[in-house]
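fyi for ur records
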Amino acid sequence: MSDLHHLAFDGHVIPVLHRPDGVLLLEGPALAQVLGYEDDLKALHEHCRIEGIAFGNQPRPTIWIDVRNAHHLAYQSGSPKAERLLHWISHWLLPHFSSNQADHYHQRPKTRREAMG
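which gave:
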């Protein structure tokens, strides 16, 4: 089951979905709004690759985009927030979730001595 997180960036809340396979998906329309796009759906259609888009089954329809599409959206926006957003993704979001996943799924196996006490 995927974990839904509501993360703060620059005074905005960006929903992030963390799938069991480790993939992070960001809510596309929320990200487009943060970047200043007037028409968030048009921006997603024009700047995101279809293979990096997923549709959620939450109570309201949600369009999720992968990190690669988040980069495309930011680069194409021309927004002054784009560089800060890319830094936030690269230096906070990805390391945070990759270290949590590593801690959770890849714990160091115990040696025989540790297991026996």
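Residues 3-116 form one domain. thats all i got for now
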